[in-house]
Amino acid sequence: MSTYATSHLLGQVLSVDCPSREILEHLTTKWSVLVLRCLSEGVHRFSELKQRIEGVSEKMLAQTLKVLEKDGFLIRTVYPVVPPKVEYQLTILGAQAAEKMTMLTGWIERNLPEILENKQRVAK
Amino acid sequence: MSTYATSHLLGQVLSVDCPSREILEHLTTKWSVLVLRCLSEGVHRFSELKQRIEGVSEKMLAQTLKVLEKDGFLIRTVYPVVPPKVEYQLTILGAQAAEKMTMLTGWIERNLPEILENKQRVAK
DNA sequence: CAGAATCCAACTTGATACTG
DNA sequence: CAGTATCAAGTTGGATTCTG
């Protein structure tokens, strides 16, 4: 059963009121894309993510992780030890979403030379 | 030949200085994702895009199209007629990028019920 | 270690109005 | 039709400081 009133708008990213819009935006954030890419390779701690994702501030990383957790795309596990240890791992859905995103980042990485050359050409 | 100094960083989305970061961000913008999705279905005029992509302002649409054009992902064709007619179509690279993005939006659209249910569960 | 909280500058976005 | 210009307002983001 659907608990939302706009069920007729399901699956319509092009519709303003479709909930998929929000999900899409959460997944395609500057940092969420990179978080998903890292976590798709396995479980990571907060500090590991911070290190691997060059340029993230702790604030943005924490914020991004919160949103993805609330959306049900990742699980946050706190170990009751000192010093604190927190691990992040993708859920099934998160892994599926990450897979799609990784296809994009992978494509960009593989085709970057061609993309940049093409961009140069256009600039002229 | 590569015209950029950071060639050793090629294909490293996780690296701050890799040009792929910028490309990635241009492609994963709120509106660019939807523009790519529309154009992947074929050539569109400005007004058609504005209509189909609910919620875009003309400003944001124009801006998004400019960026994608500069990156070489789409071609803008102006017909010298009155009233003006401008068409937008993806380049080869643009189509490839759009394909990846469409896989994501498609996945979201298809799995939205499950995603939303899962999100509800997490909220508790 | 893993963050939360605060402050503030900078960029983004949305209406609105106007133009070739 | 296909934008551009402008301005107010909202949001983002980073640096810094602090804490269990």
What does this structure look like?
Chain A has five helices and three strands, in the order ααβααββα. The longest helix of chain A is centred in the C-terminal third of the chain and has 32 residues, at 92-123. The first copy, chain A, has a three-stranded antiparallel β-sheet. Chain A is globular. In chain A, helix 2 crosses helix 5. Chain A starts with 19 loop residues before the first helix and ends with a helix. By secondary structure, the first copy, chain A, is mainly alpha-helical. Chain A has a single domain, classed as Winged helix-like DNA-binding domain superfamily/Winged helix DNA-binding domain (Arc Repressor Mutant, subunit A). At the A-B interface, helix 1, helix 2 and helix 5 of A face helix 1, helix 2 and helix 5 of B.
Strands ordered across the widest β-sheet of chain A = 1-3-2
String of helices and strands of chain A: HHEHHEEH
Strand content of chain A: 5-15%
Q: What kind of oligomer do you see? A: homodimer
Specify the CATH homologous superfamily of chain A: Winged helix-like DNA-binding domain superfamily/Winged helix DNA-binding domain
SS-derived structural category of chain A: mainly alpha
Task: Predict the CATH topology of chain A.
Answer: Arc Repressor Mutant, subunit A
Counting DSSP E segments of at least 2 residues, the number of strands of chain A comes to 3
Number of domains of chain A: 1
Give the CATH class of chain A. Answer: Mainly Alpha
Task: Identify low-pLDDT runs of chain A.
Answer: 1-8
Q: Overall mean pLDDT score of chain A?
A: 91
What proportion of the residues of chain A is helical, as a percent range? 55-70%
Taking the sheet with the most strands of chain A, its summary is: 3 strands, antiparallel
